[in-house]
Amino acid sequence: MMDQNTRKRSEVSLRDIILTVRSWFAYLLSFWMFIIGFGLLGGILGYLYSSYQKKIYKSNLTFVVEESNSGSGMGQYSGLASMVGIDLNGSGGGIFQGDNLLELYRSRTMIEKTLLSTVKVGGSDELIIDRYITMNNLRETWMNQPSLKKLKFKANTGESLNRLQDSIMNSFVKDINNNILTVTKPDKKLSIINVEVNAKDELFALNFTNQIVANVNEFYVQTKTKKSSDNLNILQHQTDSIRQRLNYAIGSVALSADMNPNPNAARQILRVPSQRRQVDAEANKAILMELVKNLEISKINLRKEMPLIQVIDAPRMPLESQKVGMITASTLGFLILSVICSIFLLCRLMFKNIMSPIDNG
Q1: Helices in the chain by DSSP H: which ranges?
Q2: How many angstroms separate the CA atoms of 46 and 327, rounded?
Q3: How far apart are CA 83 and CA 336, in angstroms?
Q4: Which residues of the chain have pLDDT under 70?
Q5: What is the pLDDT of residues 251-271, one digit of tens each?
Q6: How far apart are the C-alpha atoms of 325 and 46, rounded to whole Å?
Q7: Which residues, including other chains, have CB under 8 Å from residue 162's CB and lie 6 or more apart?
Q8: What pLDDT shows up at residue 17?
């Protein structure tokens, strides 16, 4: 008995659903001209959108980073280097491990440096930031603002930006991070990095991509090898200093011999200055040999720490462009407004059905 009642309730509910859907369909058919009219309006809007939409150019650059394992086999030489205060085992460390390198591309420092870089366009030098301003028609927008009307940026000179320039640069960096620049690692297990720039200006997309990759990679290499480079510079300075002292000591020994060519064997005191200079020369010679050895080791260590950055795919003109076709835009506009109109009519019908018992009462 229970099963039959349950079956009857399910049949009734299914029948109600089918009848409701049929009534909705019949109701929408009664307004078919209204729905098609809205759909045609959507098609026209889609066509106009496609007509006035600018192309978006995509610039892709893919490169691979290979880091050498530094420090292996250097333990036997660290004692020698420590005699002169040099640490041969130091390196840039793991500051760029994981996604840190990707975040470096999104940093204001790198984006600002890239925007203030100069590139060749049509045989003349042009700032990338000026190309960005032209691409977004900002000069026309700034015409009515006296403070922005004469705003100009200079190439990277090491000078800090003024308050107005800094504020404008902040807005540029945010826009580039949100809408233009995308940096990804397609496979977390690999060291391949893809830099993608989408912009309305083809030359801006190309130049910005190449320049930001060059700036970030240069900063990356310098940071990774900073300690070893500092060690190498210190060793080079000390080696040059000891070499000068050795040359001076050798010259002093020769000068002493020239000044006393026939020393009196009975007066040993006369040989003391010459012997002192000889001892200084021998000591400097031994120190110089160790320094030269450590200097060569430091050069090898620096070469081992130098990361290899190899570009796989670089952007080339003409760049790939993206734009919604007129037929596609018109079709989407027709469908979207038709669906919106149908939903509005159904909501109107359901509201009337809900309110009708109240009116009857």
Answers
A1: 2-29, 32-52, 75-82, 100-106, 108-115, 128-135, 138-142, 146-149, 163-175, 202-224, 226-259, 272-305, 326-360
A2: 9
A3: 77
A4: 1-12, 50-53, 67-99, 157-158, 228-229, 246, 248-281, 302, 305-307, 322-325, 356-361
A5: 665 655 555 555 545 444 445
A6: 10
A7: none
A8: 75
Q: Is 158 left (phi over 0), alpha (psi -120 to 50) or beta?
A: left
Cβ 63 vs Cβ 101: under 8 Å = no
Closest CA to 94 of 230, 232, 223, 228: 223
- The pTM (predicted TM-score) of the whole model is 0.61
Tell me the H-state helices in 225-271: 226-259
Count CA atoms within 13 Å of residue 220 on its CB side. Answer: 22
Six token digits for residue 274: 């010459």
Work out the angle at residue 236's Cα, subtended by the Cα atoms of residues 231 and 242, and round it to the nearest 5 degrees.
125
Residue 74 · residue 301 · CB < 8 Å: yes
pLDDT at residue 71 in the model: 45
**Distance of alpha carbon 183 from alpha carbon 209, whole angstroms:** 11
Which of 335, 323, 330, 331 has the alpha carbon at shortest distance from 46?
Answer: 330
The number of CA neighbours under 13 Å toward the Cβ of 341 is 21
Q: What is the CA radius of gyration of the chain?
A: 38
Q: Which two tokens stand for residue 239?
A: 């080696």
Query: In this structure, are residues 86 and 294 in contact, taking their beta carbons and an 8 Å threshold?
Result: yes
Q: What are the pLDDT digits (tens) for 120-155? A: 877 788 899 999 998 888 888 888 888 888 888 888
Amino acid identity at 145? Q
Mean pLDDT of the chain: 74
In the three-class reduction of DSSP (H, G, I as helix; E, B as strand; rest coil), residue 242 is classed as helix
| CA distances from residue 15 to 8, 22, 177, 240, 328 in whole angstroms, order as listed | 10, 11, 54, 98, 39
Q: Which two tokens stand for residue 24?
A: 């909705």
Contact yes or no for 331/45 (Cβ under 8 A): no
Residue 133: Cβ-neighbour burial (10 angstroms; 0-12, 13-18, 19+): buried
Q: Which of 24, 65, 37 is nearest to 349 (CA)?
A: 24
